[in-house]
Design a protein that fits this description.
single chain, 539 residues, Herpes Virus-1, Jelly Rolls, seven-stranded antiparallel β-sheet, 11 helices
Amino acid sequence: MASFLTQREQELTCPICRDIFQCPVFLSCSHSVCKACLQRWWTAKPTKECPVCNTRSSQDEPPINLALKNLCETFLEERNHTSPICTRHGEKLLLFCLEDEQLACLVCRDSEKHAGHKFKPIDEAAQCLREEPLKSLRPLKRKMEDWEEKGKYNYECAAELIEEQAKLTERQIKKQFKKLRQFLDQEEEARISAVSEEKRQKSGTVIGMFEGLNREMTALSDTIRDVEADDVSFIQNYKATVERVHRRLPDPPSLPEGALIDMAKHLGNLTFKVWDKMKDIVSYTPIILDPNTAHSYLVLSDDLTSVHYDDWTHCGTIPDVPERFDLDEVVRASEGFSSGSHTWDVEVGDNPYWELGALEEPLRKRRHRAGRHWTLELERQSKSDAPGEAVSSGSEMDLRKYTAVYSPGESEKMDLGNATAVSSSGSETELSVDQKPRRIRVHLDWERGELSFSDSDSNAHLHTFTHTKFTGRVFPYIRCLFDDVPLKVLTRKVCVSLENHNTSQNIILTVQNRSKEFQEFQFDPITTTSHNCPVNAFK
C-alpha cells in the first residue's frame, strides 16, 4: 500500500515545484504543470515552452486540467483524514509505545523490536501526554490575549501614526518649499523688471543722443551741399552758407560713462544677495520638539515649536515607543548637547502650570524621566498654600509659586545609597519673583556645568544651577499641564553679513534673539565649511 501511495504521489506531483498539483494546466504536448509554476517558468524564459520536454506551447493561456485537479484535491483530502501509515509494514499506526515513545502499528507491537514493551491506543496516550502541557497553557493563553490586545493594537496604532506622520511631514515640506519658490519667483520677477527698466532708460538715452547726432549730420550735409551747389544758388545763399561753414562744430558726441547695462550689479554675487534677502522669510528655532517623545496628552504644532495640553485629542491612539514619556506630561527636544553654550527662549504667557529645563541621559526608564534633570517650574496655589506671587484669576486670588528643582535621577539615587540620602533626594528652591515673566530664557553652558533661567524681556535673573558636572548629552524639555495657553519656543531673526580680514573673507550668518544678542556662524567662501562662533554669544 505504501508503494502504491508513493507511486500515486509521483503521478500527482508538479515537475517544477515537486509538490502536489495546485490548479494544473494542460499543455499542448500533454504534460501538466501548476499554473503559477508555469507562469514563473515562462517569465524567466525567452520562449513559452514546456518545462518537461521543451516543446513550444501553442497557447498563451493553457486550459485547466480539471480531471487532474479533481484527483489532486481528492488525494489531499484522503491524506489529511486517513490515519498515518507505518513506513515499515504499510499498516495503520494505531498504538503508542510507552518505552520508545513513538507510534506503532499492530505488526510493530508483535515484532522483536518492541518485545516486552507496553502500548496504549493513540487517543489514550494523547490524553495522558496532553495533561502536562495543559497546565502551562493558561499563562500562554493569557500572554496570547495580552499580545492580541496590547501588542497587536500597538502595532496597528504605530502603522496608522507612521502613515499620518508621513503625510503631515510631506505636506509641511511642500508648504515650506512653496513659500521659498514663491519668494524666488517674486525675486526673479523683480530683478528681471529692474533689468528691463534699466534697459528702457539707457536705451532711451542712447536713442536721444543718436537722434541729436542725426540732426547735426543733416545740418552739416546741408551746408556741404550749399557750398557745392551751382553758381546761382551759391551766390543767392552766400552769406548764410559762409556763416554755417565758419560755425564751430562740436566733436562727435561720445557715450557717457554708465551708458551700458550694469551687468555686474545684476549678476554679481546674485545667489548671495538673494540668500541675504531671504532672511526676511526665514526663521531659526534653537530647539525643535520631538513629537515621538511627547506624552499622549500633549499636542505639538505643525512646525514642532509649540506644545499645549489636550487629554482628548490622542487619547488611546498613540503607540507605545521606547522614547515616549508616559507618566510625565513631557516632551523633549530632538537634539541634545554634549558641549558648548546654548540658549533658547520659551514663551509661557499666562500658562499657570509648566516646567522648563534640561534632562540628562538616560532619558526614560519605567515610563518616566530617569536621568538627572534641572527644572524651573510654576504652579498655581490656593491662598492657604505657601506665599508666592498673587495674580487675579476670575473672582479668586491665586498664588503663583516659582520653584527651581534638581532631581538626581534613578541611577544616581541607586549609586549614592543611604550614606548621602540628602543629596540623592535632589534639591528644591522656592524663588522670589517680583514680576511675572512671560518669556523664559534658558542658558546651558555644558563645559562650565551651569544651567540658568532668566526673564527674556527684562533680563532679570531667576535662578542658576552651578557646579554641575554634565556626563552625557543634555536635552531641553518642556512639561505642560494646562490646556488653554500653549508653550512656544521662540524663533530668532537671521542676518547675513560679510567680514573682511587681512588674509581671508568670511560670510557671517548671525542669529538674533529678542534682546538683540547674537550667535554667529562663519562660512569660509573657499571651503564652504561653517564654524560655530559661540564667543560672547548669549552672555
